[in-house]
Amino acid sequence: MKRILFILTAIVIVLSACKKDPQEQALYDDTPYALDYGTFPPPNSQVANALTAQKIALGRMLFYEVKLSSNLTQSCASCHRQEHAFTDTARFSVGAEGDVGGRQAMAIFNMAWHSNGFFWDGRSPELHDQATQPIQNPVEMNETIPSVVSKLFADKSYTDQFIRAFGDDAITEERIGAALEQFMFTFISNDSKYDRFLAGSATLTPSEERGRSLFFTEYNEFFPNESGADCA
Fold first, then answer.
1. Phi/psi class of residue 111: alpha, beta or left (left: φ > 0; alpha: ψ in -120 to 50)?
2. What is the Cα–Cα distance from 184 to 186, expressed in whole angstroms?
3. How many CB atoms lie within 10 A of CB 14?
């Protein structure tokens, strides 16, 4: 009988230890987030269908966070600048330590529709995989994941936000990548003048209409007056 009681007590202790902290349960919020993509087709990414407001909020914090760099001088937004369509104006992007990279930080809008790998060479199959690699690249942010985790874990605003987003305060590379991915999926260019033109709510100027015609009309060297630029 004593043996049975001992086993039952041990089970109760183990189950109690597995329960989430009440404060963590109170903070956790998995409210779904619906992408506003207007007249665009539904995004290809399955992850875009599982967005939550708190993961996106965490991703935004991380995107603008200089703690992701070795010397606290650079964030993702330092090169992916919103005012320049989330890209860089420099020919070759410069890292946290002043090193010049071999490529320019590419634009990162409409990523939820991308299906051909990430980085210029497509070497990263998913955006959450790509998101943490610049942190660890010595030419870019020149940091390590353990160091980033240590810095973020020392900041209560981050431990609280990881709880809100994931249910507990564990900070991992996978969670950092997932949050950054979700935030970047919200960068959607569905309200340009051209989008409004297609929707019938805007009119192109004669110059813009000429450009549109050139863009979509095929090039024909034998009939220059009818030839387009064949950009499409």
1. alpha
2. 5
3. 9
Residue type, 136: Q
Euclidean distance between CA atoms 84 and 107, whole angstroms:
8
Which amino acid is located at 34 in the chain?
Answer: A
**Full-prediction pTM beyond 0.85?**
no
Task: For residue 64, give the 3-state DSSP assignment.
Answer: coil
Alpha-carbon Rg of the chain, whole angstroms?
Answer: 24
Quote the percentage of the chain above a pLDDT of 90.
Answer: 59
Per-residue CA distances from 94 to 81, 134, 142, 222 (Å): 13, 12, 12, 46
* The two three-digit tokens of residue 30, written as one number: 């998995």
The yes-or-no verdict on residue 29 having pLDDT over 70 is yes
**Of residues 178, 56, 55, 48, the one with CA closest to residue 113:** 48
**Measuring CA to CA, which residue among 63, 107, 67 is closest to residue 83?**
107
- Using the predicted structure, report yes or no on whether residue 116 has a pLDDT greater than 50: yes
Residue range 49-76, pLDDT digits in tens: 589 999 999 999 999 999 999 999 999 9
